[in-house]
Design goal:
It is a single chain. The chain has about 350 residues and is of the alpha/beta class. The protein is about 30% helix and about 25% strand. The chain contains 12 helices and 18 strands. Strand 10, helix 10 and strand 11 form a beta-alpha-beta unit.
Length: about 350
């Protein structure tokens, strides 16, 4: 199962709207097949592993990180494929809460006489599948907030200088994070200040096109911005509210930008509605690289599931820009709380990862 989880991890960021699943087939203590969900979500991991194993799948045990699907979509059910291949036993890490599956895959396998065990390394599997589980359960993608700051939580000097607080190793790790998410999201303020491209610039890392999302309530992003200039070759979506300038909408559309209108007010886009729209579009994992305003807004709305904090061994002082703007906390009990799940050095910097507190 650990091998299957490692396979599933390889596909993160490239399989939406489907989850990234790993499958390992074992017969007579020998691995005879392995598969990872293909880029774009098809074929599924089980189909790839069965094709790899061929006739050796008969009588084998399949280790699968997520319950095999039981419904007909663009591909036949994986439960049917396992049955037809003559697999004797299936070990499932965690169930699939999709109402089209939700126990039906396990029921199909058992009805065919296959032994099914559920729950092996379930916590690890659920952590890996958090994006898919969040979209199915909450209707929105998992949101990871990436921060690069000093030890005192500053992301730029009072003059706006921010490049570079962290070193090259941390920046490369940040690009890898982009590759592990379906999309990278930033606010219009970050676009105007830094003009980022928001792509994963590690050669050969991504197997699917980059998707960039800009939160820009009034569509004030200039046509010369990199995210607009490269929209024809890298998928680019803008979240905006009603009443945007028609000429700007047309210019962005002509450049290849997909415009998604959601609710909002003078403070900007309704991020709850915005993330729901992203979930409806099939996204499961979104990495946020915005500035203090969007970080504070997401935290205030309870939309941050994970934090990836790159912290440099430096101190800027109180006149630097904070990692998150004020969002109305008046008592300690109101603070969003997280638990540390990992911490490791990145050159002279550190990456600490957090998840929402259980």
């Amino acid at each position: 199962m650990r091998a299957a989880l490692a396979l599933a991890r390889r596909g993160l960021g490239s399989t939406w709207p489907n989850p990234s699943v790993g499958c390992v087939l074992v017969c007579d203590d020998r691995v005879v097949g392995r598969g990872t969900t293909a880029p774009g979500g098809r074929p599924h991991a089980e189909a790839i592993a069965l094709a790899h194993a061929g006739d050796l799948a008969r009588g084998a045990t399949a280790y699968v990180t997520l319950e095999p699907c039981s419904h007909h979509g663009r591909t036949p059910p994986c439960a049917d494929a396992l049955i037809a291949a003559g697999v004797a036993r299936v070990v499932v890490a965690c169930g699939d809460p999709d109402p089209r599956v939700d126990g039906a895959g396990v029921a199909m396998l058992r009805a065919a006489g296959i032994t099914v065990d559920i729950g092996l390394l379930a916590d690890e599997a659920r952590s890996l599948q958090l994006g898919f589980l969040t979209r199915v359960g909450l209707g929105r993608p998992m949101v990871t907030l990436k921060l690069a700051s000093t030890l005192d939580g500053r992301i730029a000097t009072h003059t706006g200088e921010s490049q570079w607080i962290t070193g090259p190793e941390a920046r490369r790790a940040a690009h890898a994070l982009r590759g592990q998410h379906d999309a990278v999201l930033a606010g219009v303020g970050t676009i105007e200040a830094d003009d980022p491209e928001l792509t994963c610039r590690i050669p050969g890392y991504r197997k699917t096109p980059d998707l960039r999302i800009v939160v820009d309530s009034r569509l004030r992003t200039p046509a010369t911005a990199r995210v607009v200039a490269t929209a024809a070759t890298a998928l680019t979506w803008f979240l905006h509210r009603a009443g945007a300038d028609v000429d700007r909408m047309q210019a962005l559309s002509d450049a290849g930008v997909r415009l998604i209108e959601v609710g909002g007010d003078d403070d900007g886009v309704d991020l709850v509605a915005g993330t729901q729209a992203l979930g409806a579009a099939g996204l499961t994992r979104v990495l946020v690289e915005g500035g203090a305003r969007i970080a504070g807004a997401l935290l205030r709305a309870g939309l941050v599931d994970r934090i990836a904090w790159f912290h440099a061994p430096s101190v800027m002082g109180g006149d630097g820009w904070p990692a998150a703007q004020a969002f109305g906390v008046t008592a300690l009990s109101e603070m969003p709380r997280f638990r540390r799940v990992d911490s490791r050095p990145m050159g002279n910097d550190m990456l600490t990862e957090f998840s929402t507190a259980a």
